[in-house]
Structure formats: C-alpha cells, structure tokens
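Problem: given the chain below (297 residues), write out its structure.
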Amino acid sequence: MPTSNSVSIADLRNLRLHRPEEVARAAARRMRRPLVGESGKLMLIAADHPARGALGVRGDALAMADRGELLRRLVAALDRPGVDGVLATPDIVEDLLLLGALDGKVVLGSMNRGGIQGSGFELDDRFTAYDAQSIVEVGLDGGKMLLRIDPADASTVVTLESCGRAVTDLARRQRAAMVEPFMAYWANGRVHNDLSTDAVIRSVAIASGLGATSAYTWLKLPVIDEMERVMAATTLPTLLLGGDPSGAPDETYAAWEKALAVSGVSGLIVGRALLYPPDGDVEAAVDAAVGLVGAAR
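Solution.
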C-alpha cells in the first residue's frame, strides 16, 4: 500500500473486498508510542466530522465527501514533522492503517457520532462507533466523545450518562478519554453552541465530573477570548479544537497562538482548518499550526 501522498483508492477497495482481515493485521503490527512525549504537548489532526454527516468546509457543503481526497490530505498532514497523530472514526482509522500512515502516531477513536448534523435528533449524541473495549482491541490510545448540553433538551441526560460510562470504561483500561463539551441550544431549527466564557466554563465543570474517575480524562475545548478564565476552571489536560474555519487563516492562527500560551493548554486538535485551507496547501497549513504548538513548548 502507498505511504506517500498518492493514495490508491483502488488498492484500498481491493483489500476491503478480498482481504478484510488485513485491517486487524495492520492494527496488530502498528508501532505505538506514548500518548504524550517529553514536550508535554500534542498536535493532532481531527477527521471524525464525516461520520456525523458534517462534510462542509466554508461554502462547500460536500468538501469532505471525496474519500480519496480526504485520505490524501490526511496522509500529507500526518507526514509533516511535529504532527503527533489523528482523531477519527473506525472507517478512516482503518483506511489509514491499511495505508501504513499510523506507525508511531497517537490514534484516538471517535465514539459517539449519532447526533447527525441538521437532524431533529442532533443533540442525541449516541455512541455509534468505538467503545472502550474495541479501542483497546484495536490498540488505540484513547477515545473521544462529544458532549453537547442543552438544559431544555431531554436527550442531554442520555448523552451525559453515556459519556460518564465511557469515561469510566476507558479509565479502567488506562486509555485517555477526550471529552468535547459545549453548552448548546436550539434556535431557528438548528443547534448552536454557546461560546460565551461563562457557558464554556460551565461545560468544563460538567465534563470534568463525568465518570468514576477523571484520572485519564482530557478536555477538548473551543478557542475563545477569555481562555485564562476557562483554564482556571480545570486541572485536566486540555487540547484546543480548531472550530469552523470561516475566518481568515491569519486571524485563526493568531487566536490559537494566544490560547496556546495559557497555562494548562497542552496543544491543538484541528481538522478542517488544516486539511482544507483556502489556498489548498495542506502542508503549509499544518506546518504553521505545528510551529505554534512548538513555540508554546
């Protein structure tokens, strides 16, 4: 299988059709590494959006729909110096395993993708992908879960309970639990995340208390203006998410740089903003983000 930017969809399809057992074999021979190195920082690429039907980037509603192009961009990003690994759903993890792109990388498995973007049940974020046991069986380093909390939506309590159970199950297996919390609400038929400082702080407090132990819990938080106040609310290691890449890259990088300097922030976990930059130069976008994380070290 190719390990360069020339991703062969035909080879992947052929393996999946005739030799599906190669997925497990690729997982078994993958070289693992510690979750966090000496620097104490992480730079991860996020690629779990498609499984929730979130394929859009900026004005292109189907930007991430071409799997071959997405994989090409992921392989290019993972090949850049300073990129520690990836967050993805089983289908993408398995494609990357078959491509040989995950040796020596951190791999987090996305767990709850049931809240399909734009659906009437979007806040019902059921666990439809990895569970804790399968994360161990595949040899992944942890699991990520989305936790959107709407006090007016009854489905929130199901998500809270499920996330709490997942945190406990991962910790029992000494695997990281990456929790991505938001206070959320419905408006004009859509789900919106409340990115006010007080709301983000409240989401941090709720997420931090999930599970029977927080020993292996990490937070994945949005970048906002008052990150000092947000980080004052937790002792848990925290990665910053890239968010919707709607602004100019220079403005985005400046916001990341400022937030990375806040005590307690341990790095970035970014997807669309780096995989689909306006100029199409994935390598340059990734290198810029890596430079910011490196400067914060």
